[in-house]
Description:
With 463 residues, the chain is of the alpha+beta class.
Amino acid sequence: xxxxxxxxxxxxxxxxxxxxxxxxFIAAILLFSWYVFLQIRNKNIQNLKSLTSFLPVGSERRNxxxxxxxxxxxxxxxxxxxxxxxxxxxxxELRPGGGFIGSFxxxxxxxxxxxxxxxxxxGVFDGRVPDTEQPPYPMAEMLHIKSWQMRDSNWSPDFxxxxxxxxxxxxxxxxxxxxxxxxxxxxxxxxxxxEITGPVKIADYPGEYNDETAILQLEYQVEKGYQEQGIMxxxxxxxxxxxxxxxxxxxxxxxxxQQLELAKKIEENLKQKNIQMFFKxxxxxxxxxxINWAGRVKNYKGDYLMVVDAxxxxxxxxxxxxxxxxxxxxxxxxxxxxxxxxxYDHTCRTRDWMTANYNDWLRVYIPDGSWLADSSVxxxxxxxxxxxxxxxxxxPVYVEIGKKETITLKYDLPAELKNNNYSLFIxxxxxxxxxxxxxxxxxxxxxxxxxxEVLLEDKMFSx
Length: 463
């Protein structure tokens, strides 16, 4: 088993893209044929925009439908063919932008339909990228790499930054396409599809794939299962092609009720940043940002918090990591003070080909002007900086299998936050799953307000 783990680590930069092949087809359905889920089959979504002002829905949903119509109109290739870069992110190996980019695709849309499709193994493509870019700290040290390349391009919690960086590396690797936008998709999208279609069976492969087991089954199949079944290494990707065919057929045969349920799932994935969009068309980009489909780090005048983790050389251990956030604010002191406690629970109990001790580089984004007063981490292990208009504290996190670790930061907040209209905006990292959050605010008069909930998406808390 130890040899298997070592071998998998040695292949860290050459991960198979076969695991992600089905997501390519799903992306096409979600982004350019979404009208199937919102209207009766064969209705024209271009008519939807003019109808949104009359629909009996709330303003939030009306705005979403308007943006959806614009995406179909502007990105659907009606005026000219549109080309998109698709990044497939494996959130079982969490990275700041959502997950390890094991593969990418190039999608062309024309006249409202998906045309040419290409799939690329990012590890193979990165062989064309020259060793000229210095990786951000501590990527080189923890991943043991000499240069920064496309597979690790999503180092920012802001998707526009990641999209532009991914395209930069694509060009650096002599890629010839000019993109109209970039889309990132996480593993949960496949789970969402299977929740609606139900379990699927794939001819010539054992078992069935459902929304709780499919990701693990596919990961195992393309890494180990094919050997047990006597399948040639060059043919191990066939399971993904076959699954894609089964899923597409099932989706096309959904009834209207199921289509609407799937549309709701897609909406959830957009809000939870399991799907993130960047468009070169600035008006379309502005619309996507307005309804929070673009994965942007927001400017906010009140208190702010974003916890950003990067799994560096820990295999697929994020499958086992459970996170909790405890945040306490004291507004009664001379300076407003905050104490942040982040707990990581490594719920796996044994090391295997997917799991290792958790090596994480944590970055905490807090209001610019904050000042760290104390930490559970030795001062020499911390890094400080500014990014995206925020103060950033970098912290190494190491969690052994079956163990739990808590990181504590105490810091002074900017003086202007000490007022009667205190509010807190927490942004959630793409791919980080469900995160329980406990917030306690001691006001200037000594009274205390508390909130406990599970964070699924960006949220503003008012006190």
